[in-house]
Every structure is written in structure tokens, then in C-alpha cells.
Amino acid sequence: MKIIWTFTLLMIPGVLSSISVTGYSGGGVSITCRYDRGYTDNKKYFCKGQNPGCSDLIKTKEKDKWVDSRRFSLYDDTRAAVFTVTIRNLREQDSGTYRCAVDISLYGDFYTEVNLKVVTAADCCEKSISLSAAAGGSVNISCRYPQSHSADVKFVCRRSGSDLCAEETSVKESRRWSAEGQMQLYDDREQQLLTGIISHVTQQHSAEYWCGVQSDQGHKSFITRVLISVTDITKTNSPPPSSSSPSSSSSSSSSPPKSSSSSSSASSFSSVRSPLITSVSKSSPSSFTSAGAEVQSCDSWFSL
Length: 304
Fold this sequence. Notes:
The protein is mostly beta strands.
């Protein structure tokens, strides 16, 4: 009889766990919520408030694909029995209690309680920076973070559509380089400064990136947006097309511009202190860029 009673208690829907997440105004958060593998076919949703007044912000039965609803995105990874909720363009009024839940319907729902706190970190961190570089060179990314996150894992993510962290490079130790692909990261915890270097850049590196921190529970806080634009110097330095008219053919032709060999050699990591950056600008946007958008001026990125 005791065994049956214990089993019955375990089957009662309700709160599975409670987590706390800190986000930053203008940035974003990525919240991971686990569920029992027996509920992979059930709807997953994210709501704000507490029962009976928890208002749905996003709800879906889609599996293994991103689903969007305004500033919210949800991805249900059925293999890992985890669904991830991303909130973009955070505001201080987003602070509050949320639930990421599995819709059980008849018996009520299993959910994880999420306590979100959104703060402004204007005294420490840039909301957005823009970098330009020539193809073949290097890009140097510098992002500050609040002292409260000194011990957390730091990362630089490349955004792809709804996924703010489609490609990630992270560093777990202070003052030690961590490399993945063409990106190297260095975390100076005493200075609260994360440095990233991308070498041998091409136009494919033109994209939206994010500097951020990850808690020991796996939740990510995206703090600074980095917009990178890479210019193909072979196109910008190409000579103008010659005229096909008879009069122009008799005139003396000018020699094409000489290509600079120094720009191609700038891709070496030995030049970390002075990477090939042609321009740097800073701004404070109010939203994220639209999915798949090319890097443009900061004002045109806020379509969500």
C-alpha cells in the first residue's frame, strides 16, 4: 500500500524545479527546461505568471525545429528531452515569474518555475558594437561583463535565424586561450573582459554574434551584440572596366592599382594586438536583428 501511494505522488503534475535567470536590458536569455521522455509528443509552452493566471507567451507541438512568437522562440529537442526558450530584446518590465511547462491536459501540467530578473548594465557593458575588416585579416572582439559573472563560462555565439547560439566558442578558465575553428577566446576575470579573435576572415564571417555568460545550470545570458562586416578587398581595388569605343582604344591605358601584400599577411595570429579592423562603432539598439538578415547599419537590424 505504501508503494502504491508513493507512485501516485510521483505522478501528480506540478512544479519540477525552480531556477533563477539574470538577463540584461537590450540583450537576451536562453532558458533550458527538461521533461520526462514519456512526454515528447505533448505540447510545450512558456507562460508568465502563476496559476490560474499564467498567460501563454509561446506554445507549440512542433518538434526539433524553432518556433517563433514575437520576441519568444521555442525549440523542443526530443532526443535530449529538453526544450529551450529564448527571449530577445529584454526589457526591465520582463522581470517576473514564468513557467516552462509540458501540457498534460487531463491531469494538469508539469512545469519548471523560472524567476527572471532583467537589469541594466550600462555602467559596465556595451549593448552593441560594430566591426569592419578586410577579407584575409583578423577581427578583434572585446566585451565586458558584470563582475557577478566572473566565475561563469563565457562564450561568443554566432546567430542563425531564431537560434542566437547556432555556433558557439566558449572559455571556462581565466587567462587561458581557448580555440575552436577560426576563433580564439581569452577571459580576463580580474578585468571582467572577454576577448575574441577571428583569423583569416572571409565574407562568410559577416554576421551577428553575441558575447555572453552561461550559468552552471546551462542557461545563457546574451549581453553584447557584435555585428561583423567583412569587405572583399579584391573587389574594392579592382580597376574600372575599359570602354569599347574606338576612340578609347587608341588612348593610353592606365595600369591597375597595385594590390597590397600587407593586408593578406594581417591574418597571422602574431598580430593579435593590432588586428586588421577598418572601423569600430558603438550603439545601443532596442532590439535584435531579423532572422537571416545581412549585416547593415544598426538601425535596420530591429525587425523583431
